[in-house]
Amino acid sequence: GAVVSQHPSWVICKSGTSVKIECRSLDFQATTMFWYRQFPKQSLMLMATSNEGSKATYEQGVEKDKFLINHASLTLSTLTVTSAHPEDSSFYICSAGQGAGNQPQHFGDGTRLSIL
Amino acid sequence: TQLLEQSPQFLSIQEGENLTVYCNSSSVFSSLQWYRQEPGEGPVLLVTVVTGGEVKKLKRLTFQFGDARKDSSLHITAAQPGDTGLYLCAGEEGGSEKLVFGKGTKLTVNP
Q: Which chain A residue lies closest to B103 (C-alpha atoms)?
């Protein structure tokens, strides 16, 4: 089945550091990838839609200059949290779609980001 | 943005009991998916329902999509401790691939 690999799985860093998270579709091409954020005991909230070869589409309230998304190829999207602060600590999850037409999204295992 | 109301938020039952989780919306979704998520991991797809009135079964789990494609339910028969986890419903906004997630149901099945 379709596999999405997310790396790293856990990051601890100091306030002010920029952190890059990678999301790879291992056995299929994904023209669209999605980035979610999940706070403890809460559900997944969509942050942005990453489109290969074009700019990401951000959800309302998500700062595009804070959360930089690059989708350089059909198998890789990256999320960079710039100048991270403790309030950015969360569980970040990516998913990859295989196109519309009721095809399910495949989720990565998430990245636990802790900012000290 | 479409919203999905999921209930109950928490459910603690004894092994062997039955349970139902509900997802409701005032909006129509092109499809609705149910996921199960373990702590520290990404959601794992259980089922996708597409057609209004559709019923799908996965062993002891029964999923139903409302006739109007605005609501869905997950019914578990004879729950087991291995069913413990966070269950999430997610609706796909028409034509966009974007998923709207419910708040989740934290299920605990006690032996």
A: A43
